[in-house]
Amino acid sequence: MKQGFRPDVVGSGGWFYSEKVKDHFFNPRNIFKTKEEAKKFKADGIGAVGSPQCGDVMELRIKVDKKKDRIKECKFRTFGCASAIASTSMLTVMVTEKGGMKLEDAMKLKPKDIMGRLGGLPERKVHCSVLGDKALREAINDYFRKSGQFERVKEEGTKIIDKALKITGKDIEDAVLEGAKGFEEVQKMTKVGIKDKNCIPEVKRLIRHYRAKHFGKS
Question: Which of 74, 81, 128, 199 is catalytic?
Answer without folding.
Answer: 128
